[in-house]
Amino acid sequence: MTKSRTRVGPRGTRAPALDVDALLDDPATGIIVCCGSGGVGKTTTSAALALRAAERGRKVVVLTIDPARRLAQSMGIAELDNTPRPVADIDTADGGRLDAMMLDMKRTFDEVVESQASPDKAAQILQNPFYIALSSSFAGTQEYMAMEKLGQIHGTSVADGTYDLIVVDTPPSRSALDFLDAPERLSSFLDGRFIRLMLAPARGPARLMTAGLGIITNAMTRILGAQVLRDLQTFVAALDTVFGGFRQRAQKTYALLQAEGTAFLVVAAPEPDALREAAYFVERLSEDRMPLAGLIVNRASPVPAGTVSADEAMAAAERLRREDPHSSTAGMLRLHADQTRLVEREARLRRRFDAAHPQVATAVVPALAGDVHDLDGLRRVGELLAVRQG
Amino acid sequence: MSDWPKVRLHVVTGKGGTGKSTVAAALALALADSGKNVLLCEVEGRQGIARMFDVDPLPPEERRLTTGLPGADGEPGVVHALHIDPEAALLEYLSLYYKLGRAGRALDRFGVIEFATTIAPGVRDVLLTGKVFEAVQRNSRNKGAIQYDAVVLDGPPTGRIVQFLNVSNELAGLAKVGPIKSQSDTMMTLFRSPRTAVHLVTVLEEMPVQETADGIAQLREADLPVGGVVVNLVRPQDLSAEDLAVARAGTLDRARVASDLEAAGIEADTGLVDGLLAEARDHAERRALEDSQRVLVGGLGVPTYELPRLAQGVDLGALYELAASLRAQGMSS
Ligand SMILES: Nc1ncnc2c1ncn2[C@@H]1O[C@H](COP(=O)(O)OP(=O)(O)OP(=O)(O)O)[C@@H](O)[C@H]1O
Ligand SMILES: Nc1ncnc2c1ncn2[C@@H]1O[C@H](COP(=O)(O)OP(=O)(O)OP(=O)(O)O)[C@@H](O)[C@H]1O
Ligand SMILES: [Mg+2]
Ligand SMILES: [Mg+2]
Questions:
Q1: How far is B66 from chain A (nearest CA, A)?
Q2: What's domain B9-235+309-327's superfamily in CATH?
Q3: pLDDT for B226-259, tens place per residue?
Q4: Is residue B162 within 8 Å of residue B17, measured between CB atoms?
């Protein structure tokens, strides 16, 4: 691939170039969070950034979520054990290191419960059907657990200096905002009217509430049966004792995300949905005073060489096909036309984003011909990330 | 002739972002020919249908959406849309089966409805699938309601689809009595029958194809009927197998390309020729990866359909184009 083919996107885009190496090299950068909608390349980007930072001398840990199997194997994290493991075969000449881990959401949740309750009580909670639903399928649990794990790793690395940079991948969700909304969702669920109601009798005289509870428990017993109601009461009671501490921890982590040393990178594919999500996210970060470092447009179509337009290429292909229906040059011209149309469309989409958010520093990573499934692939993505688009 | 003549309920699943909503919409258009009525349902609360068809956000009730793709007789049918909302469904359900009176209102006021639909295991799914079930099962006794020839569900992603459809199993530990239980048993009978097909959308990349294979295995294990695999976002097929091999080896004939370009009236400067050769090489590498994934898809033992990656993106016109392609490949008649 020649140099000129990695130059991607519209020439004359207004957005300033994101200086990835400056961000990675700055000792003040302590946490990098890669957000974005599903499938845009968050896991790949976080791993590539972490590897690049480590090979530039930083002591890095990367927290990945559901990496592709081959990528996980090549990083030596195919076994889930919820603790960071050193990545072999990285270049440590500059004194850096790289640990990696893959988040186990349910296990992280269970560990929190185990750390907050007596063994008997914890065992009881872990078997409760409502807890199982909450810890395995509540929308937002994965995001919340990613934050919990970030909090834990940050806590230990501040204490013993193991790492000076934590790179965080975020779960595959439709919306990048889910990551920021998760703690609030969980808290508002735990603070929900119903849960407060179930707790009311235990909390002294709330006559009105208690009267309401009678009606409700009768109705629910009729619909669901008594066992379900008992499970529910156990669960709610556990919430009160165990999860009180949760909210505090979540607030602490949220504050960590707002602090100076954190940098958010929004990853997007040059697609309408992904860029719309990226725009929402950028706006939300500024509302919440969270530090946005920039936008990464990943898997951009490489700009074709030459100045032949899509229509010209198609017309020429037609002419060649008339002479020789199997002309391979005709095929290449049609590919060129397709590529040119893609690039034009992506450029339009990016201009729309840039017009609304001209201040957001941007890096563009072209779509590679192959998958990114090993350290060499990650290095390649890291290099491309660091190319500043003028 | 369609590959799925008996199917009334088409469920579309797949890895996130592979094109489930696009394929569900195109399939609904393809099924709605010759005066047929087709219902397109969404359950994920994201108003994807409204966005794709460029209409106002949908309420939680059935709406006429658009006309379908005309059939051989030149006549189209009608596509209707339903945005299924679990809270609305639960309230409706309770008032239908339980005369709860004051208690029903209290349940809502005290947040029980919200609680139940967010967390109670299986409740949310049984309510969502319940609405779909009702639309499929309608008959002439349901006065005034449209009887659908087919229902298409833009479903949850592969990782959740089995749990989603396996309602009676999910509820087993929860509601052992009452109408929820007996209804979920009838629902399972439909979902397991040849009147249902669960189609999987994928792209020709490693992770989505792996997820498709895992999904099919899980569906089979749960006795749920596997439909077809729709391979979406397929790259253009403009180069022959020989050209691809030569392009990958880097031995495409430069001089030939240059003289062809000149013959076609395009100035063949070195930059352009180099560019075309490099594009062809990258394309060939990607196609080789796609081909290896296509072999895996072919080995899954189910009918497959392919949809092209449209360089201009998907607008309303493109949905009809994709619908026509699905029909031509036999996914609908
Ligand atoms: N620049 C690139 N060029 C080519 N392939 C890429 C590029 N970036 C990512 N990929 C590939 O795209 C796929 C999806 O990437 P990745 O898993 O990083 O996305 P993600 O945002 O983490 O997805 P999810 O939301 O599912 O977690 C992977 O197969 C990866 O190898
Ligand atoms: N054949 C195609 N050609 C070009 N673009 C496509 C094609 N199919 C889908 N897309 C685009 O890809 C994006 C994702 O498609 P879609 O929303 O249908 O996926 P999905 O699987 O429903 O995603 P989600 O998991 O977020 O619900 C959309 O922007 C859509 O327009
Ligand atoms: Mg990921
Ligand atoms: Mg969708």
A1: 23
A2: P-loop containing nucleotide triphosphate hydrolases (3.40.50.300)
A3: 999 999 999 999 999 999 999 999 899 999 999 9
A4: no
